[in-house]
Amino acid sequence: MSYLVVHPQSRLETLSCSTFGRHFLLVLVPKIGLLICLLMLLHEKGVQSWKSYWKTIGIYCLTIRGVPLDKLEILRVIFGIFPTYSDSPLPSAFDRIIQVGDASGIQSPVSFGGFGSMTRHISRLSNGINEALAENFLDSYSLGLLNPYMPNLRASWMFQRAMSANPRTGVPPTFINELLYFNFQAMQSLGDSVLRPFLQDVIQFGPLVKTLGSVMLTQPQILPSIFKQVGIGVILDWFVHFLMLGYYTFLSSYIDPVIRPWIKFFPGRKRYEVKRYLEAWMYGSGLDYE
């Protein structure tokens, strides 16, 4: 069965029902946000933004595939919004209901890579959901363990905040482009072990430390603009998640190998919980990246 529902945080989702023997579990999965796009198209600010974009594009793009802009025939205009949340992923708030994919907020706040995030987590989620159904661990606490706190996801939200247009901060108009350039320049100089995970939306502690250190040492003049753009409160909050990213990296690297051989001896519920904790450490530190 499938129903159209609206998430309390204004996400458009479908509600699907999965069955496993006598147990059932409702899984919230993404639905194409046609209504969202329509509302945005009708919204005055959205239309104004599009008009402003179309006027500005002529400054740096005189032709598209060799055709002058004033000669283009516009058949259809498509644009949309990508909401990001600083408290993602969203844990289960009710028994027998779990959010997956974009509905859980597990997509990257930087690239909005919902599909990439889902393919990365699908093995973890499918195994966990199967275990929850088989053992009837369908209370909100047990299902919430499938969408655990992930410090790398929380930390990446600040990167999105830093790259968001906010004219009230007073930073130079070239700030976002410079920030991107300096960061990618640093990652490229540090090699594929730093660059490739980031390009695939996997934030890891070691590469992040190297990148931030390189930017601060080589481009210190950009730091005041970062503080103005993001705000000291957000940076302090981010620093907590940054420390937790290092902590999860330690747990997954050194504590996981000690615990994992003993999981099979744990009773059912404890075994389920420990597996979820080990997964949270691995995925929350980005050490699932291969």
Description:
It is a single chain. By secondary structure, the chain is of the alpha+beta class. The protein has 3 domains: 1-31 and 82-147, no CATH class; 45-71; 150-290, no CATH class. It is 54% helix and 10% strand. It contains 11 helices and 6 strands. The chain has helices spanning 34-42, 44-60, 114-135, 140-144, 151-162, 175-190, 192-199, 205-218, 223-230, 232-259, 268-285, and strands at residues 2-6, 12-20, 23-30, 63-64, 67-68, 97-99. The strands form 2 sheets. It has a 4-stranded mixed sheet. The longest helix has 28 residues, at 232-259. The chain crosses the membrane at residues 20-42, 230-250. Keywords: Membrane, Transmembrane, Transmembrane helix.
Topology of helices and strands:
Blueprint: E1 2-6, E2 12-20, E3 23-30, H1 34-42, H2 44-60, E4 63-64, E5 67-68, E6 97-99, H3 114-135, H4 140-144, H5 151-162, H6 175-190, H7 192-199, H8 205-218, H9 223-230, H10 232-259, H11 268-285
Parallel strand pairs: 3-6
Antiparallel strand pairs: 1-2, 2-3, 4-5
Helix pairs in contact: 3-11, 5-10, 6-7, 6-8, 7-8, 10-11
